[in-house]
Amino acid sequence: MVAEAARKMVPKDANEKLAHRRLTVLELAERLNNVTEACRRGGIDRTSFYEWKRRFQTHGLDGLKDLPPIAKSHPMTTPPEACPVS
Q: Is the pLDDT of residue 46 over 90?
């Protein structure tokens, strides 16, 4: 199941290469039937592995790509110049 998705993907940019690498670790765990060994060989922690697995199951290959950065400010925040000075 994971192996089929890995074969269909042809990495082109850095984000796709990263997704492919993560998919390779998921596939290795499936082949070995051992998450700990796959994580050791892939140089990742088990928490990351299970996060990637969850994201792959819900979003497919796009779920393995890096997520966009979290904004430093919220668009609905009141600008400082609009606040009264005490």
A: yes
Of 16 and 84, the one with more pLDDT: 16
Copy the structure tokens of residue 13.
Answer: 């940019």
Question: In this predicted model, what pLDDT tens digit does every residue of 47-60 receive, in sequence order?
Answer: 999 999 999 999 99
Whole-angstrom distance, CA of residue 35 vs CA of residue 68 = 27
Do residues 20 and 5 make contact, with C-beta atoms less than 8 angstroms apart?
Answer: no
* HEC sequence for 15-69: HHHHHHHHHHHHHHHHHHCCHHHHHHHHCCCHHHHHHHHHHHHHHHHHHHCCCCC
Give the whole-angstrom CA distance, residue 30 versus residue 86: 62
